UniProtKB/TrEMBL annotation:
Residues annotated to bind ATP: 285
CDD domains: CysRS_core (cd00672)
HAMAP family: Cys_tRNA_synth
Annotated transmembrane regions: none
Species name: Candidatus Nanohalococcus occultus
Lineage, broadest ranks: Archaea, Candidatus Nanohalarchaeota, Candidatus Nanohalarchaeota incertae sedis, Candidatus Nanohalococcus
Listed name of the protein: Cysteine--tRNA ligase
Cofactor(s) listed in the protein's UniProt record: Zn(2+)
Keyword tags: Aminoacyl-tRNA synthetase, ATP-binding, Cytoplasm, Ligase, Metal-binding, Nucleotide-binding, Protein biosynthesis, Zinc
Keyword Hydrolase among record annotations: no
Catalytic activity, EC: 6.1.1.16
Binding site for Zn(2+): 29, 225, 250, 254
Family of this protein: Belongs to the class-I aminoacyl-tRNA synthetase family.
Length: 473
């Protein structure tokens, strides 16, 4: 079986073939680090983490790079507006880098809570200003950039004479010209309004700025990912991923800069996730209609449930957020973990499901190979959980291999299915179940029922068997 991914560049589902057999170079656009992680942001990072896990499951050695944007991302995409980090820092009355340091720490706490593994390299934009300046010099030297009043712009029309520009968004220059007139504020310094900034001359009030041959200023947002991706993965690599809103203008601009500076267009496969909506509108900080991962966990939802909820839809399908969905995910987690524990505590005789653990693994892989279809893969696994649970309820016992494959495959989806019972809790449950058995032997049903009810309140289920009682979380 071979993995197929929908390539936004060609708008087709293509068989994935890495440039180097057995190795995958993977770049995903990361967080602009000015506020807490909301579920819409987390959806992207969860899916790209799942892709990495699945590639590793398939036997690839993956190098995953994901940036942190801590300068240059403005409040609109037309090279105008305020820097998002500075704007937020000013509102809080603190230095921009003070905000950034705090938010980076919170970001990693939040991504860890939803089981996103830390990427191999997490470069910060402010740590690569020198490389960005040198990159802009190359673009100018190659004839694709021009400087006016300390600002450097990318000449889209000149570039389009030599390379494809709007193919990812399926737009030609005439369309871009019309859209730019409606989308961005007019800038007399640009040769064409669809040109975009490589370097911006900062005004006196702007705090984050650096010396360059053109001005005291800061890099354009699009420039950052071009420089950091090619620095750590080479001029050509395998996968570049981001949100649907990056299909234009961010990723076409990134790609154009790379061609202009190096003659290479970054990645072979471009992947984009759809948004989470709230009552039909995109979840976003600017609209204020967002739920942060941190707040949801404080409300009592688990990180595993958030992850389970996210993977229950395909990464290219839009999904509307609901707490009912999170509660359903919590119930699914409980059912799966209970089934895994019951298999572990059964006597291990083989149950004939007409499917071996290897068959289950193959079925899971067939869905994941179809453009990382986590929703169908999860649904497939849930069907096996229901079959196993039904068999166990009927008194059958199951080999540990079935528990092992469930834990393994849900682990590929990034959801932990092993029991979350601590050693102390386990010892407590063992002691109380043993006490309950003694009261039952003495026919003290009232006390035995009392112990059972108290354990139930703590989340433990008791199952009475011929050979004695066992507990499950």
């Amino acid at each position: 079986m071979s993995l197929k991914l929908f390539n936004s560049l060609t708008r087709e589902k293509e068989e994935f073939k890495p440039l180097e057999e057995g190795k995958v170079k993977f770049y995903s656009c990361g967080q602009t680090i000015y506020d807490d992680l909301h579920v819409g942001n987390a959806r992207a990072y969860i899916f790209w983490d799942t892709l990495r896990r699945y590639l590793e499951f398939k036997g690839h050695n993956v190098r995953h790079v994901q940036n942190i944007t801590d300068v240059g991302h403005l409040t609109d995409d037309g090279d105008q507006g305020e820097d998002k980090v500075e704007k937020r820092a000013n509102k809080l009355g603190i230095e921009p880098m003070e905000l950034v340091e705090d938010q980076i720490e919170r970001y990693f706490e939040d991504t860890k809570a939803v089981n996103v593994e830390r990427q191999d390299i997490v470069p910060r934009a402010t740590g690569h200003i020198h490389e960005m300046i040198e990159y802009v010099k190359k673009i100018i030297e190659n004839g694709y950039g021009y400087e006016i009043d300390g600002n450097v712009y990318f000449d889209v029309e000149k570039f389009a004479e030599d390379y494809p520009y709007g193919e990812m968004a399926n737009k030609d220059l005439e369309q871009l010209k019309e859209e730019a007139q409606a989308r961005v504020e007019h800038d007399d310094r640009k040769r064409n309004q669809y040109d975009f900034a490589l370097w911006i001359n900062a005004d006196e009030s702007h705090l984050m700025k650096w010396s360059s041959p053109w001005s005291e200023g800061y890099p354009g947002w699009h420039l950052e990912c071009s420089v950091m991706s090619q620095k750590y993965l080479g001029d050509e690599f395998d996968i570049h991923a981001g949100g649907k809103d990056h299909i234009f203008p961010h990723h076409p601009n990134e790609r154009a800069q790379c061609f202009a500076a190096t003659g290479k267009g970054q990645a072979n496969y471009w992947l984009h996730n759809e948004f989470i909506t709230v009552e039909g509108e995109k979840m976003s900080k600017s609209k204020g209609n967002f739920y942060t991962v941190r707040n949801l966990i404080e409300e009592g939802y688990s990180g595993d449930a958030i992850r389970m909820y996210v993977i229950s839809s395909h990464y290219r399908s839009e999904t509307d957020f609901s707490k009912d969905g999170l509660e359903q995910a919590e119930k699914e987690l409980s059912a799966i973990r209970s089934t895994v524990q019951k298999i572990r505590k059964s006597d291990g005789n083989d149950l004939d499901l007409n499917e071996s653990p290897e068959d289950i693994r193959d079925g899971f892989e067939s869905y994941m190979d179809n453009d990382l279809h986590t929703a169908r893969a999860k649904q497939f696994l849930m069907e096996k959980v229901r079959l196993l649970s039904s068999a166990l309820s009927g008194g059958d016992s199951v080999k540990d291999e079935y528990a092992d494959v469930l834990v393994e495959l849900f682990g590929v989806l990034g959801v932990n299915m092993e029991s979350d019972v601590s050693k102390t809790e386990s010892e407590m449950a063992d002691t109380l179940v043993e006490l309950r058995e003694r009261f039952r032997e003495n026919e003290d049903w009232e006390t035995s029922d009392y112990i059972r009810d108290r354990l139930s309140e703590l989340g433990f289920e008791i199952e009475d068997r011929e050979d004695g009682a066992v507990w499950y979380r």
